[in-house]
Write a structure and sequence with these properties.
Layout: H1 32-81, H2 84-105
């Protein structure tokens, strides 16, 4: 009788197929056919989840892009609202005018 999970299509006691077992290919010696089957199973599993993963990646990318644009837009908006540089420039003009007035008045 073969070991459980060694390719038995149906378990004789319960009549059910064996569950998949995790195999560490570095520890267990596998035949080239078993390695090829593992690669095929991994590829099939990866292709099965690809559309869902692609959708999530697109949504995540759009969310990050929207956040970046919001921060960029808010920065421009807040800089355009700042008037302290205009106030400093007005004060500098007034100071220059006072200096010129004093220089021409005396």
């Amino acid at each position: 009788m073969a070991a459980p999970g060694a390719g038995d299509p149906v378990d004789a006691k319960s009549g059910k197929a064996p569950l998949a077992q995790r195999i560490d290919p570095t520890r267990e010696k596998l035949t080239p056919a078993q390695r090829q089957f593992m690669r095929q199973a991994q590829l099939a599993q990866w292709q099965k989840t690809l559309p869902q993963r692609r959708t999530r990646n697109i949504v995540t990318g759009l969310a990050i892009g929207a956040l970046v644009l919001a921060i960029y837009g808010y920065t421009f908006y807040s800089v355009s609202q700042e008037r302290f540089l205009d106030e400093l420039e007005d004060e500098a003009k007034a100071a220059r005018a006072r200096v010129l007035e004093r220089a021409s008045g005396h």
